[in-house]
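Running this now, will post back.
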Amino acid sequence: MADTFQFELVSPESLLLSEEVLEVVVPGTDGEFGVLKHHSPFMSTIKPGILKVRKDGNAWVEYFVRGGFADAGPNGLTVLAERATPVSEISADDLNQQIKNAEEDVADAKDDETRQKASMHLSQLKDVAEALKAA
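Update: finished.
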């Protein structure tokens, strides 16, 4: 297709996506932004939220991303996410259980460092839940 560009979604665990796409919508820290073919060079940090990818037609594939960078350039778009999970693989029940477990970890923390790590994990899980509700 003439209007496609190369898109890569990478997390520390794996290369989740590397293919030609029509459009990507990224949850930037300064607001959501869309990328189409021939986007001007641009770099942005990303916040926890839903990254949307349109490969063809009107069908979108969604990923929950947590932090990282987006880099648009003449060769396409690369998103380096701290964490990326297909929305289709996130179950509400599993997420609620993880939040409950994290709340217990915060309550049970014996020292400040442990409490801080547990609080950050809890906050990130709540970000996932909020992003999914908004999607």
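Residues 112-134 form the longest helix (23 residues). More later if anyone needs it.
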